Structures are given as C-alpha cells and as structure tokens.
Request: fold
Amino acid sequence: MVGAGCATAAETVRSQASVMPKGADWIKAAAESVDPDQQSVTLSDGRTVGYDYLVVCPGIQLNFTGVSGMAEAMETPSVSSNYVLESTAKTWRNIQGVKKGTALFTMPAGPIKCAGAPQKIAYLSADYWRQQGNLKDMRVVLVLPTPGMFGVKAFADELERVVARYGIEVHKNSELIEIDGEGRTAVIRDNTDQSTQTIDFDMAHVVPPQSAPDWIKGGPLADPENPAGYVEVDKNSMQQTRFPNIFALGDAGSTPNSKTGAAVRKQYPVVVQNLQAQMAGTPLDGSYGGYASCPLTTARNKMLLAEFDYTMEPKPSFPFIDTTKERRDMWYLKRRGLPTLYWNVMMKGRG
Reply:
C-alpha cells in the first residue's frame, strides 16, 4: 500500500524499543548459529548464549542475487520492489510517471513472504492508471510461477475476473530469469515447455526468490530434504523434529502454509501452549491447522480477504459475509483494522 501511494512509510515503522515486551532481557545482537547439542546460540558480536528451551523465529531472507541482473537492476530508476521499504517510494514514483507503455510485475517460484503481494501492487497500479485514464495505453504484464491465480479455487476465480477487468496479461507457470535494468528488458521463462521470451518494459516491480536465512539453511535445525533450508518442525505442534526443546514459528519454519503474519498469529499460541507442556513433561496438545490469510488489494478501494488452512479450502473469520468476493468493507479492514491489530494486539501478545 505504501508502494501504491495508499499509505505512508512512516505508518509502517516503530522502533524496536517501543515494542519490546516488559521483562524481556533484550540482547542487541543478531543470532548467527545454533548448537542444539550444547544448547547455545552464537551471536554476531561473538558472545554465546545458553538456553534450556529455544524458539526460533528469524524470518525469511530476500535473495536478490538469485535472478540474473536483479540486484543491479534494483539500483536503476525503472526497477523497484515493495519487499524493500526504501524502494517503495520508487515504486510509487514509477506508477505515477508511466502513462503509457509496458509495466512488468513478477513473482518468483518457491515460498515467499505474503505470496499475494506481487499481485496486489499490479492491481493497485492498474486501478490508478484506470483512474487517470491511462490504462488503455498500458500493457500490464503479471508473471506467476503457479498454474493458477491462487491455490484456492474460490479466490482464484475471483482474481481471474479482476485481471480480466484490467486487461492484465498473465503468464502462468512462468518466472523471471534475467533482467537488465539499464536496458529495461526482462527474460521470462515458461516452465511448462522451458521456452523464453524477452519483454521490453517501462517500469518493473520485481520480487526476489526467498529462503530461510543462510545461518539456518546451513545449520543442524534445517530440513535436510528442503533446499530452502527451513527449520524442520512438526506442522501441527511446531516442535523441531529432532530436538524436543526447540520450537519454531513464522516464515523460517518448514510448515507447509502460506508465509503470512496471519499464520504467525495462529502459530504463536500453539507454540506457547506446547512449550509450557514440554517444560512440564505433559503431552503437547496444541495444534496449528495451517491457517493463513492473504488480504489481496484488488483496487484502490476493494480487497479480497483470502483465508484458508492446510485443507486449501476457504476458512473465513467472518462467516456471515462472502469473503470469496472483493469487497469495499474489506479495504477498510486492510487499511485501518489490520495495522491496529498488528501494533496493539499481536505485538503485545494479546492474540
């Protein structure tokens, strides 16, 4: 929403000190490795901290070097990514500045933070150009690695209507494999037949491939079968599969859910319950069912609230309204309600 000019960057930021829980011993250094046998964590300043129980939640890593030319392209005026706060101003500047030509929006293969974000900015941009009377002069290209618009059919069907309304050219089962920011060209590969095509663009919004942080990926907590290196946990209990005094939550865990803040909100009560049970030597009864939520902004005043779980069926929090359709009231939930929930409820451990 910041990259689309619908919110300010300042609204999205708080100091770490202002959100630190009272009573916590705040160690101002980053974790760099875990030794589960010695029950210790090595920090970036060289210190080692011991533990009896450990909760691992370092988030996910952006890999701009994972696509040829992407890191260099990010330094050019025409290429931006809303996954970097400092780049959102460039996104909005480009949306306003391009009045005709080609706008490219890409999504990488593999799990990423908020898998709806690469689509959200495409829709918000297209709606802006519609409002300005410029959409008819734009070629809007959306590159998706998936066979459909979304993994849940009810939401995918609605998004098909959205892209048709804007006239967006969608390349499914495809991904960006090379980009030249200076030359403003991108190479797209169709993963169905491995064919490639080059697209000339006037602006591009790119999303880098993502993975667990390197120090997790190469360490003893990682899932050896997953090249992305996420912390291997039971998908329901959130307990590490080989070290019972370790739990993980959030994007760095191997749970097969969409990596969203909403997922964390449902995971952390389970981790608290099961951590307490592990300490007490009682059964771990807490169970996470894979809930995730993707609030997809489909226009500058509408949103599609996609909620689902491991069954990949809709799991609405508001069963009395139809959340399989884009709605104006959901826009206000996204714009005002969810930030309030995040800062005043989630960050304070209230649910």
User: Anything to note?
Assistant: The mean pLDDT is 95. Residues 247 and 344 are 25 Å apart (CA to CA).
